[in-house]
Design brief:
Blueprint: E1 20-26, E2 35-40, E3 43-49, E4 55-59, E5 74-76, E6 79-81, E7 88-89, E8 95-97, E9 112-113, E10 115-118, E11 121-126, E12 152-158, H1 162-167, H2 175-179, E13 182-191, E14 194-204, E15 210-220, E16 224-230, E17 234-243, E18 249-257, H3 267-288, H4 306-314
Antiparallel strand pairs: 1-11, 2-3, 3-4, 4-9, 5-6, 6-7, 7-8, 10-11, 12-18, 13-14, 14-15, 15-16, 16-17, 17-18
Bound molecules: FE2/S2 (inorganic) cluster and fe (ii) ion (FE2).
Fe (ii) ion binds next to helix 2.
Amino acid sequence: MAMSGAPSGQQSTGTKFAEGWYMVCWSADLGPRAVMPLRYFARDFVLFRGETGKPTLLDAHCPHLGAHLGYGGCVEGDDIVCPFHAWRFSSEGRCVDVPYASRIPPRAALRSYPVAEHSEMILAYIGPEGSSPRYEVPPIEELDDPAWTSLERAEITIATQPREVIENVADKAHFRQVHNQTIDQFEMIIDGPRATQRTIGRGGTLDGKPISVETVATYHGPAVQFTHLMWAYDMVLINAHVPIDEENLILRFGVMLYTGEGVELDRNVILTHMAAARDGYFQDVAIWEHKRWRDKPLLADGDGPIGEIRKWYQSFFA
Ligand code: FES
Ligand SMILES: [Fe+2]
């Protein structure tokens, strides 16, 4: 998104990030009436949960004298009150009260971002000022199904750029080397804001016995991916990244496992398989942290559709 050209007094970085829905935190990490400072996209935000439970994301710095609302701001109703002189802002970012003044300055407002909450995630739509969402991230239905375990969550900060994470979708040739998996069928399907990778192949169980592995992994926009993994167990994986700045991002990972309704699986078995699914993904991370981006990679036949996924990702830049 083009962040340059912001009105004076607002944040302007001149950096560019893909427009779309980003996961800004796990639902569980924003308690009732909680206020959280966030730094993403090389900008400062305040995220808070109103008294009705509604999450709101605003630019962080008060238009009055510039206090950061994420440090000491208080929730009242679904509004937030600045810690410095108590100006009060609604979830739309409008200033609705200046307690000591007879009149609210007409331009007193903070930029507010579209927010959605489902599937244990708080998502925010980040794009050029005034933009509204071009697509939605669907909820994960398995989360309400008693035949599935609850979601195990992990998160890490990585020194890399989103385009490295995205490119994984098209990278057919790394499975054998990085994940010890043979790929028999590989397909990438681009459908507007969604990019899906399907693989059918062979891997091993945790004991190393050969077993078939199938995945259907869909990016809903540039940053939120849901994967169905059919391995020793059926699993659903969440993989969502959000840039902190142009060189670092936070990657959040969630995994749940199908046990069958009323089936009691050993908790250790569940946790070991979930950890293995997570660690499989983190095998890629170890490469990303030290690799160098090649604008013009030298490709061989047998490589996946790297050019196509790059073009798709580019479509999120205005
Ligand atoms: S700086 Fe926020 S009310 Fe003064
Ligand atoms: Fe991978």
